[in-house]
Write a sequence for this structure.
């Protein structure tokens, strides 16, 4: 997608316990009426929605939680309606954005004016091939963490991907906390994200496993 085609106003999906990174794809099961309406409207226009994490909910009935400032624009690349009127969709992350202002409307879902200025690099293909020697320690620790948490990763498939696809896929799929994933999402570039992953992993490696008294 080109810069000039990016929408300045998007419907936002504040989905708790979920995060998406550029160049990654994830399935979603849509069943709430307001988000059914949002997906319907999106499918009729540009198929784009803004995925963003809400901050801590004030209560379970809080329909307008405060939002994190940084999210990721996603495109609906697969769509299916079930017999019980749910939507099964697949979202592909395109580019991160910063919320500028929420817009008041009569729609059931929320809409925000957004800015992409700091994230245009998300749209480019990283030419650098993935060198496992450069990331060996990170992957070694990450593989250990994945295995201890019961996660299965196709490491051979990752070797065939570009550097940005691999780092983003691992960041999104990792058993890190949502707060840690938000930090990774907001990392300025891949080099920073790689460093942040290493920093987070060091706390897991030494605290969570070697010292059983720490929670």
């Amino acid at each position: 997608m080109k810069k000039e085609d990016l929408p300045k106003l998007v419907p936002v999906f504040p989905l708790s316990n979920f995060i998406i990174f550029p160049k990654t794809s994830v399935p979603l099961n849509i069943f709430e009426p307001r988000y059914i309406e949002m997906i319907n409207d999106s499918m009729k226009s540009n198929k784009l929605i803004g995925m963003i994490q809400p901050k801590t909910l004030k209560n379970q009935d809080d329909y307008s939680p405060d939002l994190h400032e940084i999210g990721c624009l996603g495109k609906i690349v697969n769509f299916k309606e079930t017999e019980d009127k749910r939507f099964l969709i697949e979202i592909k992350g395109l580019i991160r954005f910063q919320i500028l202002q929420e817009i008041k409307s009569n729609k059931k879902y929320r809409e925000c004016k957004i800015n992409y200025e700091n994230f245009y690099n998300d749209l480019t293909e990283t030419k650098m091939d993935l060198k496992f020697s450069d990331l060996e320690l990170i992957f070694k620790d990450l593989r250990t963490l994945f295995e201890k948490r019961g996660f299965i990763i196709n490491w051979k498939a990752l070797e065939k991907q570009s550097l940005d696809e691999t780092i983003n896929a691992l960041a999104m799929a990792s058993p890190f906390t949502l707060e840690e994933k938000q930090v990774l999402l907001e990392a300025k570039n891949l080099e920073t994200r790689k460093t942040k992953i290493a920093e987070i992993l060091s706390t897991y490696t030494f605290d969570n496993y070697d010292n059983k008294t720490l929670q």
Summary: Residues 190-210 form the longest helix (21 residues). The two ends are 43 Å apart (CA to CA). The longest strand covers residues 87-103.
